[in-house]
Design brief:
Blueprint: H1 2-48, H2 53-61, H3 65-79, H4 89-125, H5 131-158
Helix pairs in contact: 1-2, 1-3, 1-4, 2-4, 3-4, 3-5, 4-5
Length: about 160
């Protein structure tokens, strides 16, 4: 009986560790891709309108926030000490689920946000005044990463 508890606990710890890794890795990959999409558009737009670099830079950096949500989610779960030591399989599963949810949502959110920002950058490069409108539209995909982060926070409070 004692052996099953130890094996179950170590399995839960592995499961929760994978969830935390997914949370960090997927959100970081999404941010890297999203920022790169905006950066690529910036290089092209600079050829047409080099004076708008400040707008390009802000729009390019916006998808980087999803990686921060992944790190914040990791910190929230890990700071409670729930992801270390003896945890139940249910707790391990909850941490895994939180990591999977926040990681995947942040990945797609950052990529789609990068695409919106890239279109705004291209339009600004062509001489259109669309910075504020692009920022408003780019916030919509970010909302889903915020919701996933909130879900992670709620899940962490039940562990």
């Amino acid at each position: 009986m004692e052996t099953a508890t130890v094996l179950g606990s170590s399995g839960a710890l592995i499961f929760s560790s994978i969830g935390l890794a997914l949370m960090l890795v997927l959100s970081g990959i999404g941010s890297a891709i999203g920022v790169s999409i905006g950066g690529n558009a910036t290089i092209g737009a600079l050829k047409k309108n080099p004076d708008a670099f400040g707008s390009y830079m802000l729009l390019s950096a916006l998808p980087g926030t999803q990686g921060l949500y992944g790190f914040a989610g990791f910190f929230i779960i890990n700071s409670g000490g729930d992801a270390s030591g003896q945890i139940s399989m249910l707790q391990g599963t909850e941490i895994f689920a939180a990591g999977l949810i926040l990681g995947i949502v942040s990945l797609f959110s950052a990529i789609q946000q990068g695409k919106i920002c890239a279109n705004g950058i291209a339009s600004i490069g062509s001489g259109n005044d669309v910075f504020a409108k692009t920022m408003v539209l780019a916030v919509f995909p970010e909302l889903y990463a915020i919701i996933a982060f909130a879900a992670t926070f709620i899940i962490s409070s039940t562990i």
